[in-house]
From TrEMBL:
Coiled coil: none
Primary localization: membrane
Annotated membrane topology: Multi-pass membrane protein
Pfam families from the UniProt entry: PDZ_6, Peptidase_M50
Entry keyword Membrane: yes
PANTHER family in the record: MEMBRANE METALLOPROTEASE ARASP2, CHLOROPLASTIC-RELATED, REGULATOR OF SIGMA-E PROTEASE RSEP
GO cellular component, one term: membrane
Full protein name: Zinc metalloprotease
Compartment annotation: Membrane
Database matches in Gene3D superfamilies: 2.30.42.10
Protein source organism: Tepidimonas thermarum
Amino acid sequence: MLTVLSFLLAIAILVAVHEWGHYRMAVACGVPVLRFSIGFGRPLWTWRNRAGTEFVVAALPLGGYVRMLDEREGPVAPEQRHLAFNAQPLRRRAAIVAAGPAANLVLAVALYAFVAWWGVPQAQPVLASPTPASLAERVGIRGGEWVSAAAMPAEDPQPVRSFDELRWRLTQAALDGQDLRVWLADGPQAPGREVVLPLSSLGVSDVDARLFERIGIVAPWSAPQVGEVLPDGAAAEAGLRSGDRVLAVDGEPMVDAQQLRARIRAAVDDQGRATPQRWRIERDGATLDVQVTPRAERRGDAWVGRVGAMIGAAPAMTTVALGPLDALLEGVRRTWEVSALSLQMLGKMVLGEASLRNLSGPLTIADYAGQSARLGWLPFLSFLALVSVSLGVLNLLPLPVLDGGHLMYYLWEALVGRPPSEVWMERLQRGGVALLVALMTLALFNDLARLLG
């Protein structure tokens, strides 16, 4: 239920802001707005202002529209013809159409800026043990290092304030096909050494968990500690308790929970046979040796070991909060970076350089809406900002049924001095609808594949 309500609330807010952009620009340009609707279908609530605009909340809250005075959509009195949308100069029509996506981008800036100003608890940028045979392991990362700064080859070093920020920089560099320079230190104030992660060698086409496994930076550092123990699991059978700190496994010191989890998974061979392990643990100040035999579990085509317990303590957290001006600049920067990344991914998908599996639809958005809402209102605002950027960028694409398609028509009109013919307009609209339906179908298929897989 929370997922559905969060999704509907997010869609309602983002659609309302988008249509408000069209509405306010139309009013500023002197074009009468007949109806402002959030949703489609049967009206649930209506209200009319002094200017005669009817505001509507409809039964199906999955979109919205602004209906302006326009000779193409209904009869217009002769004395009002100069006010109709289709009679406006080109620059005014373009401004009204562009105002919707622009409102979504402005909302994203405001949300990102507010979250940055308020401050969000995030995991400290301390690295866990790298996954075996990964880029991080090959460049000498061992786990426990503090990342103080990062930059692509042509950039100046930028401070890294949290693990989430580090993941964002890794994503950007990997999609750009560039290496990433990171500065590692023993603590937040210690001098750092520069290490280059050769991300350009990955040939990235998908951004998912497997990407970060290949890089070797999957999660922030957490202590190799036993959490909740299930009553019928291998950990309970071995006598492990919540709070036990694992010092070594078969004589190998455990640096962090990531390393411990890897050792547990590797305890089962290709035939599903488990090898007993000797764990040295610390409990209430005393050191104990226990034998743990992980149980085999099938994951896809492979067998992995499981002990029936949460492994790893909560990572160390830090609150990243900026001053008002810095927060506003951060909002602008983040909106610009997410917009550029979205366009880059779309371009790569069109050129076949990125998988179409990156395309997400309403089910994925609803799932993320529910997850962010469970984490709190600040993560939900960050989620709203991300989707608002995506909505703004999507609507600026030059597809005939979107705002960007109308701007494409206006560009043609500015270049040749006349609008496209009615025949071509009809053909382009049909093609745009067909393409949009195909994209929506593909996105829905990807959603189902993610949720069921």
